[in-house]
Write a structure and sequence with these properties.
By secondary structure, this protein is of the alpha+beta class. It is built from three helices and seven strands. The chain has a seven-stranded antiparallel sheet with strand order 2-3-1-4-5-6-7, covered by helices on one side.
Length: 170
């Protein structure tokens, strides 16, 4: 995931001029299936890309109702054989919370964490990404945190672990 120094990384603004966008890499299900599932949860798909292994879809964090501030329910969107690697890029712009990541397989949450606390993951296999995060020096005794690029390094570690395609946004 290359990024020019003058342009912010997509984890900070996945789509220019559009706040609170989730980036969902998926495989084992079709774009149409995921799109229909998101629409069923009142989430507007904004962009998508087809890859040879993983594909990607970007959608609004919140539902299209003004009073719908619930999170998308990703489990039902990736039934048997499906996988989702979900980045919530701007969970609350007003409060400046860091991004979140969740990985779903076969309808179950396997691992998830907030970028603000990589040491406290949750899910069926919360430590799945610990080796990749440790290698990137984001957790463990060799952790090198509080750098400006911690969020970008976290994305790189996740992308490398799952072999996610590069996402180069304008």
């Amino acid at each position: 995931m290359t990024q020019s120094p003058s342009r912010p990384h997509w984890i900070h603004r996945a789509l220019p001029h559009h706040e609170e966008t989730n980036v969902v890499f998926f495989r084992g299900l079709t774009t149409d299936t995921l799109t229909q599932g998101l629409l069923g949860q009142r989430r507007v798909p904004l962009a998508y890309g087809k890859g040879s292994d993983w594909s990607v879809i970007l959608h609004d964090l919140f539902g299209w109702n003004d009073d719908d501030y619930s999170e998308a329910d990703y489990g039902p969107l990736c039934a048997a054989g499906g996988e989702l690697a979900v980045f919530v890029t701007e969970p609350c712009v007003a409060k400046a919370h860091g991004p979140w990541f969740s990985y779903y397989r076969d309808g179950r949450l396997i691992t998830g964490f907030s970028f603000e606390n990589l040491r406290d993951p949750w899910g069926e296999d919360p430590d799945l990404l610990r080796p990749a995060l440790a290698e990137a020096r984001l957790v463990g005794p060799e952790a090198d945190l509080d750098r400006e690029d911690d969020e970008e390094r976290t994305v790189e570690a996740i992308a490398g672990f799952f072999r996610l395609p590069q996402l180069d946004m304008p």
